[in-house]
Amino acid sequence: MEKRTFNSIEISKDSILDTIDTTPRRRYKARRGRASNTNWIKPFLLILVLLCLAGGIIFSIVSCSSAKSGTTKQKMQEELAQISALAASYNYDEALALIEASEYAQKDEFLALKQETEQKKAELVPYDGPYYHVFFHSLIIYPELAFDGDYKHEGYDMWMTTVSEFKAMLPQLYERGFILYPLNEVKAEGEILLPPGKKPLIISIDDVNYYGYMKGDGFADKLVINDEGNLACEVTTPTGELITTYDGDVMPILDEFVRAHPDFSFKGAKGVVAVTGYEGVYGYRTVKLEGEEQEKAKAEALKISKKLTETGWLLACHSYTHNDYFRDNNVSMEDLTYDTNRFAERISDLIYNTDIYISPFGYHLPVGDERLQYMKDMGYNIFCPVSPAMRTYKTDEGVLFSERFNLDRYNMRTKKEFINETFFDVDSVYYKG
Ligand SMILES: [Zn+2]
Question: For the segment 413-427, what is each residue's pLDDT rounded down to a tens digit?
């Protein structure tokens, strides 16, 4: 800006000098007799040049300082936006700390925001009601591909949920006062502080692996980072086109919803992403590839884990094999040991050695069971089985249990009343084809 101002001064100075050089000469030739009368023009024009130069300098100083105050204003607005965003997601202490540290702390806008934030912080109330933990599998993007009459149709129609259904649930959960709460801050006993009228909701997603058997059935292919640096899904459309979209699974859809409704998330919490190991994670076949290809897939998977954890997601183990021996709550100690070790060897590093275990087939373990002690010894402090009771408790082993309820198509059909009362109006959500 400054440079441009000086350039324009030079240009105008040159054109004025051109006038000085040419104009008097032309006049002298044309009106020789009156030459002495034009002698005043040269000093006059010189003064004019000097005035212009001085004006230019003053102008550039003024424009410089106004640019500076523009930058100040912009910086202030940026800080205010950052602080407001923190306060909107209930990060009151962080917001207040930023106000305190700001060079504009004494400006009116900052003082007002400080007062508002302190008031909201004081309004937090102890919550001693239940935690609501619901879960999903990968969402069905194209129902016409999932429900096509083949042997997988029935399973998808029971244990899965469509993108359209999930997107219809969110505004209703939001309206009913649910607020995404971090599973690792759940307390089995004692109260937590929440904004008045809010209920803690934990969302987990099982089998975020995009297994080979699902290919062509209307699900995403894998998780990716898009051009904006956000988590997204890579999806093959019914016509075979490869696209990148947020509308491909729970995580990017929820990310987008929270971007629009920051008050739906307590301190930026989103949910829990659970993976098995036998086909790699997030659609990257880290265990099936070898050599350089494998290293590349691992690096991609790690990028996804990094992005997820940076944006409020927790990661969880959902067993390595998801083997049938986990059905019916009677997995043997031997099988459990084999499976859990395999996960530790091949997957744990890729998901930052999580301490959350989401049991395959939702199997339960009783308090005092040696298998539970084993899981605790293997580093799992949080165990999430399936039970519509959605109880939260801590065992003698020191393991926090967080029972989960499946918001799938089967439950929307068979537990409609419970879902209507508790979460959302099923009829306005359920995909009818
Ligand atoms: Zn599963």
Answer: 999 999 999 999 999
